[in-house]
Amino acid sequence: MAINRRTVIKGALATGVASQAFKIPAAVAQAGPIRIGFLTVKTGPLASGGLQMEQGVTLFFKERGNKLGNRAVELHTADTGGNPAQARTKTQELVERLNVHCLIGPLAAFEALAIDDYIRSTQTPILTVAGAEDITQRKANPWVVRPSATSAQTSHPLGDYAAKDLKFKRVATFGDDFAFGHECVAGFQRTFEDNGGKVVQKLFTPLNAPDYGTYISQLKPNLDAVFTAHAGSNGFKFIKQLREYGNKTQILGGFTPVDESLLQQMGDDALGAITGNWYSAQLEFLGNKKFVEGIQRDFKVDPGVYAAETYLCCEVLEQAVKDAGGKVEDKAAFMKALKTVKVPNTIRGPVSFDELGNVVGNSYIRKVEKKGGKYVNTVIKTYADVGQFWPYKQDEFLKNPVYSRDFPPSKNLEN
Amino acid sequence: MTRWNAIWLAIVAALLIAVPTVIGNEFYVNMASQVLIYALFALSINMMLGYGGMVSLGHAGYLGLAGYACILLTINGFDQLSAAILALAFSTVMAGFFGMLSLRAPGLGFIMITLALGQIVWGIAYRANDLTGGDNGLRLPARPMPFGIDLNSAPRFYYFALAVVAVALFFIWRFSRSPFGASLMGARDQPRRMSMLGHNVWLIRWLTFVLAGFWGSVASLLFVYYNLFLSPHALGLQQSAEILLMAILGGASSLAGPIVGAAIITLVKNVISSYVERWNTLLGAIFVIVIIFMPYGLVPGCRELWRRIAQRRKPSASKAASEPAA
Amino acid sequence: MQWQFWIIQTLNSVAFGGLLFLLSSGFSLIFGLMRIPNLAHGAFFMLGAYFGYSLLARGGNFWLVALVAGLGVGLLGIALERFVLRQISGNEQGQVLVTLGVSFIIADICLLAWTGDPMPLPAPQALRRPLIIAGYAFPTYRLVVLVIALVAAVGLYFLMERTRIGAMIRAGVDDMEMARGVGIPVSRLFTLVFLLGSTLAGIGGVLGGPILNAYPGLDADMLPLALIVVILGGAGSLLGAFVGSFAVGFLYNFGIALAPDLAYFVLFLPMVLVLVFLPQGLFGRVQL
């Protein structure tokens, strides 16, 4: 059964009516459904990622028969339109009108930041997928857990890999000119340069730039690789245009550009691209195989990182609900369960959380290959137990300013 | 007529004051506050649009100017009142400057300059990371406490917004009835004749632009107080267009039009969208259908409809009244 | 800076300018004759790209697909003009509301029909290899788009300056009442111009597809560019749209290359300056 809004509403009405008609005692009423608010983007330019997020959640609750532990689940999906003010209103609706016990989402960092203070003031546990570093770092929100990764978390191992294993010396970075792009690039730059590499060129492109031709023409000729931190359709456009200009430089990337959901459309252009990610549809875990099959069966697409993100959130949530004995009403205890949860067999492998609520788990280096007529992200190296500060020490890391256009400072730029 | 108006006004006022008690749920009270904030945006743009015929696509720029100024001043140690006053002053001065640029070109040129200025403010908000936090935005630490009243509860903020909008509405109403408002409408319809009669058409338009900017800035402060957060997404072209569409949809030639338009668009975006997945299509369809059947917006359209129905209901009376006149 | 830089960026500029001409000439024509700011023009461009994607996926010939998809968009344009815009002629505010409303609907339906994922339009096989110029590679397809834009410009010039219809359109642009007075069928002319303008947008969308891809938000990315071109060049004049397109092409490419920090202002600042000092644009034929 697919969980659509109508069944949810009907269910909600039914339970509401029932508890009034029969005056069920409070203790039993507490065992009613767990109400989950799901913030995603279903309209506007960011809908691509948002719709995939919905696939992940839908599949999970279909598989679990709409239950977490032995409690029924009531899922409320809200469309933020990819707009911070609307994200805030929708969060208010979920919390104030629908009294949800916890939230999953939202997609974009700026949405997560727009509801940050509201989450704190209403003390609503939230499993976020947004990358914004400081949500679990310098301005850590005590009600947030992040099972996927910070923007830079998977760039750190990639920088390490590019310098040590690939022995690259000169790399140019390219990214969307917003916080995600800055953070993703900065993480790569830091580990890459700490291990002897040089970032010789750094370009950031406005999010709504129609054409990258002028940027691509500026790329230096003698590069070992170009690192891209473009999200969604921009990453797609960048790689296509890079090849269109006859530029055959090795592509490195963060966890957005050669996503499985877009890979078949990209064709040979993406072949050989090496990216750092906490996930690949190729992972051999049993749970992941089931997940990939499920998405392919129900939605006729390959699961991308956004679908994996929300499915993973649900896996973590499920274990935390079990750990808390199903008592999601006790916010403090439930939050504690979320932060101390250990899930050994998620689609990305074993995960646990640091005290700030961010995930510690495997990080993968993947390469785009063609297997049986299909483009896939083959895992070529696994970094185990990578946290958000890896490979640095937490207190030293947090003494530095948050990653940005200007931090870490670029010492090796050539002009 | 005036007595009827007064009665209507009293009824509407009573209803607005009763809103929080009637709807109860915090979420819907907050929704009502948002409608008020957007209504003020639409009312302010309508000073230019409805009375001056000037179509602006850059009104969300004031959200950037006043909003960021207010947050930055507060963060840097100013108290809420002086931050608000300085932010309004800054934004209004900028409106003066923008007005001087925009009024160089008429018609589409005016639209495009306002659009470009709005985009430039957006670009600065986006690019000046150190100051504005870029797309991560900035947080206002807390809502202000006018006269020591805590505005954190939904009903209190609603009353605060209602009071501000009521003052603005009164001002805009007086403005539209004043000789100045009349000369503005004159400048819209007969610019050449107005200048021959000795009116400084440019000055009239410029002052209107500045006043609209001022009330737009007041709405911006309300927006920031409500959301406690500001990022460049709130001041993009999309937002400017939305504010403009609110005024046109409700009917730019009426005082109530922008309020109705703001209510419809805000509610479709935030409430209806929970039940209708294709709410963007719904919104677009509302625009098209309203304009086909009521070319000058909902409020004037409904008034016209009401007049016709009233006429049909007492045909003899109206005939008797109209025939001798004809 | 090396001389290759100037050559490649000049090529980038003219190629982008060509694409912009295909995008904006239709907008300029419609606005010039009918005084309708068709804010659905960006959505028409995007719809053309999506139509193109679907037809190409079914194995259509690229150039034929461009024509068919363009005409498809053109028919939609006629419907908009006949059934909606005609009802509210002269009502500028209504036109703004309706055309934006239509673009909301188109964008939302595209999302429904083609999902949110970006869709690539493959360029014709023969044009996929880059051209090597002065040791630097440049995409062949972009140069072909430039050539098409130039051909389209010449074609439109002949249509406007050398044919009866063109003469009628010009008369309409200069003085609508007079044109009506001398018996020009203004109503049919309007429909024709709207068909032409929307078809150009649709064809532009398909031709731009291999460069930009079809994705949600393409409309919002392109509409401001069309507006800037028309403002810089001046509305209602083919020469204006032509010069404006290439001016924007150069501004965009060199502006970003030479002053990357000004990427956000590189188009809007010059636009404000031009309007402040030359309120009618560079080659404006009509009062804006």
CATH topology annotation of the largest domain in chain A:
Rossmann fold
Overall structural domain count of chain B? 1
Percent of sequence in beta strands of chain B: under 5%
Which structural class best describes the helix and strand composition of chain A? alpha/beta
What structural class do you assign from the helix and strand content of chain B? mainly alpha
The CATH class designation of chain B is: Mainly Alpha
Question: CATH-wise, what's the superfamily of the largest domain in chain A?
Answer: Response regulator
CATH topology of chain B: ABC transporter involved in vitamin B12 uptake, BtuC
Which two chains touch over the largest interface?
B-C, 44 and 43 residues
What this model shows, in words?
The complex is a heterotrimer of chains A (415), B (326) and C (288). Chain A has helices at 5-21, 26-29, 47-63, 84-97, 109-114, 116-122, 155-164, 179-194, 213-216, 232-244, 260-266, 286-299, 305-323, 331-340, 394-399, and strands spanning 34-40, 67-68, 71-79, 102-104, 126-127, 144-145, 170-176, 198-205, 225-229, 250-253, 274-277, 343-346, 349-353, 359-371, 374-386. With 415 residues, chain A is an alpha/beta fold. Chain A folds into two domains: 5-151 and 284-361, 3-Layer(aba) Sandwich (Rossmann fold), CATH 3.40.50.2300; 155-281 and 362-399, Response regulator (Rossmann fold), CATH 3.40.50.2300. Mean pLDDT of chain A is 90; it is low at 1-29. With 326 residues, chain B is an all-alpha fold. Chain B has one domain (20-293): ABC transporter involved in vitamin B12 uptake, BtuC (Orthogonal Bundle), CATH 1.10.3470. Helix content of chain B is 77%, strand content 1%. Chain B is built from 15 helices and two strands. Chain B has a two-stranded antiparallel sheet with strand order 1-2. Chain C has helices spanning 3-34, 41-57, 62-84, 92-114, 140-162, 164-174, 176-181, 186-212, 218-233, 238-258, 268-277, and strands at 130-133, 136-139. The relative contact order of chain C is 0.20. Chains in contact: A-B, A-C, B-C. At the A-B interface, α4 and α5 of A face α2 of B.
